[in-house]
Design brief:
Blueprint: H1 19-27, H2 31-44, H3 46-55, H4 60-75, H5 90-103, H6 105-112, H7 125-133, H8 142-168, H9 172-178, H10 191-198, H11 202-225, H12 234-246
């Protein structure tokens, strides 16, 4: 019988330092470690930017090139010297930055020129294209699609963090059995089936799901906390993003 227990989180993740602090270190003299951390953030939020660029009327290949060009520019140190966390949230910073990038048409054209000096990032472009295809029926604005993609990225990243935590604690089987209960879905595995599968009581399964949901809520708050400069803005940002997500 597999018991659920309080788990000690693994080594510090990207969520445990604010995204703003990563940006500011990378824009200063933070060294290669700071640049690497910023690169990881760029990969994490690659799809929301790609979706925004697509919704602005670009085809898949041009959107990939523009997104790569945008993040290449962002990774250049001089592009971050004016970043100021007091001006808003990291989400708003990225959206304003990509709008500015696309408004400077000459810069965008230079960045997407094939065969140029654009540093490509390792992302699954085909998967992103398929994800975007599933959103074609949603006639929302580029800005709203960006926000929906943003919260979807946070939620997916939160689930992956929990998967890592449970795996670190030797509870991968438990996580795989109950993680469908984190979201509203018709694909939820009945608790009775989980109990039979894992040799647990129904009460123990229900408690495991409850603890997983509590941890998930905390992880999402931590993730959002890493994107705002003031901790007091966490609940407001959470409410805003959940309202956007609920409207999908």
């Amino acid at each position: 019988m597999q018991q659920d227990s309080v788990m000690t989180p693994p080594n510090p993740s990207a969520f445990q330092s604010t995204h703003w602090s990563v940006v500011l270190r990378a824009g200063g003299d933070g060294g290669e470690d700071a640049r690497s951390a910023l690169g990881e953030l760029c990969q994490m939020y690659w799809y929301p930017i790609y979706a925004f660029v697509r919704r602005r009327g670009n085809n898949h290949h041009d959107a990939v090139d523009l997104t790569q060009g945008f993040f290449t520019q962002l990774l250049e140190k001089h592009s971050l010297t004016h970043a100021d966390p007091q001006n808003g949230r990291f989400r708003a910073f990225l959206l304003a930055s990509v709008k500015n990038f696309m408004a400077n048409d000459w810069r965008a054209r230079r960045a997407v020129r094939r065969g140029g000096n654009v540093t490509t990032m390792s992302v699954d472009n085909d998967a992103f294209r398929q994800q975007y295809q599933q959103q074609l029926a949603d006639a929302c604005t580029p800005e709203l699609l960006f926000e929906r993609s943003w919260i979807d990225t946070l939620l997916r990243s939160g689930i992956e963090r929990l998967r890592h935590e449970y795996g670190h604690a030797g509870k991968s089987v438990l996580f795989d059995a109950i993680h469908s209960h984190l979201v509203t879905s018709s694909e939820k595995v009945p608790q009775a089936d989980i109990a039979d599968q894992l040799g647990m009581t129904k009460a123990a399964v229900a408690m495991s799901i409850h603890r997983l949901r509590q941890r998930y809520a905390n992880v999402i708050r931590e993730a959002i906390g890493s994107t705002v400069a003031d901790p007091e803005d966490i609940e407001d940002e959470l409410g805003r993003l959940l309202a956007v997500f609920a409207a999908t």
